[in-house]
Amino acid sequence: MKTRSDVLVDAAWMDAHLHDPAVQVVEVDVSRRAYDEWHIDGAVFWDVYRDLKDADYRLIGAEATMRLLARSGIGPRSLVVLHGYAPALGFWLMKLYGHDDVRILDCSRDAWRDEGHPVSTQPSEPAAAGYVLPGPDPRLRVGYAAVRDAIGRPGRTLLDVRSWDEYRGERFWPSGGLEPGGKAGHVPSAVHQSIDGLYDERGAFRNPAALRGVFSAVDLDGRDELITYCTIGGRACTAWFVLTYLLGRESVRVYDGSWAEWGRMADAPVEQV
Fold it and tell me: Is the pTM of this model over 0.90?
């Protein structure tokens, strides 16, 4: 298992490696507006809704992922550093397909700029790379059928890491309103686990003791399989990343379809508080 120092890089390290041809920086967000205003010098942009998900919020497949990596200048030996609004989603996608060296920048965008590190307004256009991906790692991901099977089953714990209002059925994404046919609530037997409080004032991950305190609803020393979900997978991947890499919890998988899928499935059971 990789340690904290293997998966996080600080701003000083990033600054020193910006022009390393083996390193590719990726900003992951739900809109490119912030990227267009300014971004880390040399960073490419991944839009969650356009690049990582399809029109029904489903994760892109292997062929689309290969095209995304190729145009991002990422090859099998690239060291990929992710940051932005949803870096853990990009990290999880890379690990799903077995990429070896993936890291997250351990500070916020604003901290990077405010501390005087290089930024640019010019889109990055790296040389295209070639990448043939292996099959996805089933240890990292679960689908709708597996989540249904996990409801109330001993040895499996469903973790809903959305807001309390979403969990109890007061809100339904997007924008707090119901999509046609959408249902608000949570998966039956799911435990609510807020992930507020993961970061310090610079946007860096807090120390392990503090992170353990955040995950108060989780048996961090147990062996149950944990399945995280949120709305489209971003927060679920963040929880997966922290639990797996920063706290060393084994047997954590992501339901990347999350509520964008479950809440619109006619036969999906839903509970409200």
Answer: yes
